[in-house]
Amino acid sequence: MSELSLNELKKQIKTGNIASFYILYGNETYLKENYLAELRKAVLGPESDDFNLRRFDGRELELDELIEAVEAYPSFAEKTFVEVRDFDIFKCNEGDSERLRDLLNDLPDYCCLTLVYDAVEYKPDKRKKLYSLIEAKALTVDIHQQEQNDIIKWIYKHFEAYGKTISYEDAAYLIFLCGSLMNGLNNEINKIAVYAKGNRVTRADIDAAATPVVEAVIFDLTNYISAKNYEKAAETMGKLFQLSESLIGMLSVIGSQIRRLYSARLIRDSGGGEKDIMELLQLRSAYQAKLLYKGCMNFSYDWYKNILQLCAETDLKMKSSSGESEELLITLFINMASRK
C-alpha cells in the first residue's frame, strides 16, 4: 500500500497519470470531496459522463455489483470510474474476501476504482489476507486537517472571491472560533462575506455572523469565570446548552479544555512560550495557543486538580443517571466559579 501525499495526488491528476486503485480517507471532508471530483474529472473528462461512472454505498454493497462495474468496458471512452463510499473492506467474510482478492489482483487498466471513507473509518487489518494485496495495489491518501498557514491562504482566496480581504490575525481568529475543518469554515466564510459591508472583513463581522464551535465557547466560559464576570459566564453557559447536541459530549470538551489549560500552565511555568504550547499540545491555531498562554495563569494548580476531579465525577454520574445531566453540568459550572 503506497501512501500518497496530496501534492503527489495533485501531480497525478494534472499529468493524467491515473492509477487503477485509490483509497481516500481522513477527516478533511472538503478537500477530500474536491480531490475526488478532480480525480473523477481526470478519468472521465470535464462532463463526468454518467455512462462510465458508477457509484456505490459500501454499507449496502453487493459484491457482484462491484465486480460487474469494475469489469464493464467503457462506453465511447477510454476509462470508467467506480466510486465506493464507506466500504469496510476488511470486514468481508472469507468467501467475499477471496473474490475481492481475485478482482483487485487483476484490475483492468481501463477502470479507476476509488474507495472513499467518511462515515466509516478506514482501518487496515494486517491479520487479513486481503491486507497484503491492498498494500501492493492501492494508492492511499490521508486527507486530514491542514496546517494553519495553509488554511489561512485558503481563507484569503475564498474571501477574495467575494471581493473581500481579511488580516492574518483575524483569519487565525476565525479558525479558532469556527474550527479548522474547511467544510465548516466554508459555510462561515460565505455568511461573513455576505454580512460584511466593507471590503475588509473585521473581527466584529466575524463575531456577528459566524457560529462558534463548542470549544471556542467553552474557552469564553473559562475566561469569564476567571474574570469573575458571572453574568457573562451564565449567558455563555446558556449558549453552550443551545450548541451542544450531547451533554456528555459537552462535558468531554470541557474536560479537554481544562486539561489544555493545565498543560499550558505547566509549559509556561517551565519557561515555555506560545510556540511550545502550540507544538506540544498539537494545536492548529496560533490564536488558541496565545489564549492558552495568557489564560492558563488565571487558575491555581489546586483549581485544576479539583475541577478535573469534578469533571471525572460528573461524567460518572451523567452516565449512571437519567434526566439529571443538565443539572449536573450547572453544578460543575458553579464549582468552577466558586473554587480557587
What can you see in these coordinates?
- The longest helix is centred in the C-terminal third of the chain and has 23 residues, at 247-269.
- This protein starts with a strand and ends with a helix.
- The protein has 3 domains: 2-142, Rossmann fold; 148-209, Helicase, Ruva Protein, domain 3 (Orthogonal Bundle); 214-338, Zinc Finger, Delta Prime, domain 3.
- It has a 6-stranded parallel sheet with strand order 1-6-2-5-4-3, with helices on both faces. The protein has a two-stranded parallel ribbon with strand order 7-8.
- The chain has helices spanning 6-15, 29-44, 63-71, 94-105, 129-137, 148-160, 168-178, 182-195, 203-209, 214-226, 230-243, 247-269, 274-280, 286-295, 301-320, 325-338, and strands at 2-3, 21-25, 53-57, 80-85, 111-116, 139-142, 165-166, 200-201.
- It has 340 residues and is an alpha/beta fold.
- α1 (6-15) runs parallel beside α2 and α4 runs parallel beside α5.
- It has 16 helices and 8 strands.
- The radius of gyration is 25 Å and the shape is globular.
Helix count from the secondary structure assignment: 16
CATH architecture annotation of the largest domain: 3-Layer(aba) Sandwich
Overall mean pLDDT stands at 91
Q: Kindly name the structural category.
A: alpha/beta
Subunit arrangement of the protein: single chain
Number of domains: 3
